[in-house]
Specification:
Number of helices: 3
Order of helices and strands: HHH
Structural class: mainly alpha
Shape: elongated
Number of domains: 2
Radius of gyration: 28 Å
Helix content: over 70%
Length: 98
């Protein structure tokens, strides 16, 4: 009268031992450490890029300000518009990914 209902038996689960779990967790920890180091090194590159951009902008202002004030203003307007578009697109993509 009584029957036992169970799912299909997976023979792989019988071979999965505690040392396999430890090995998996150690691998996950190593991968997490590598990801952290990669992000940490990328921050230095981003900071270097930002410094280079700021220096080029300052050099452009110093070079263009005395003679071509109108050109400088137009370039600043274009740069601000591009930066706003990039920032807006980045924010929108972050919102959609959440």
């Amino acid at each position: 009268m009584f029957s036992q209902v169970s799912g299909p038996f997976n023979p792989l689960l019988s071979k999965f031992k505690d040392e396999h779990i430890k090995q998996y967790l150690d691998g996950a920890q190593i991968e997490s450490n590598h990801d952290y180091e990669l992000k940490k090194s990328n921050r230095w590159f981003y900071m270097a890029y930002a410094i280079i951009v700021v220096l080029v902008f300052i050099a452009g202002v110093v070079y263009l300000l005395p003679d071509n004030k109108d050109l400088l203003i137009q370039l600043i307007v274009i740069i601000v518009a591009i930066a706003g578009g990039i920032g807006g697109g980045y924010g929108l993509s972050k919102r959609r990914s959440e």
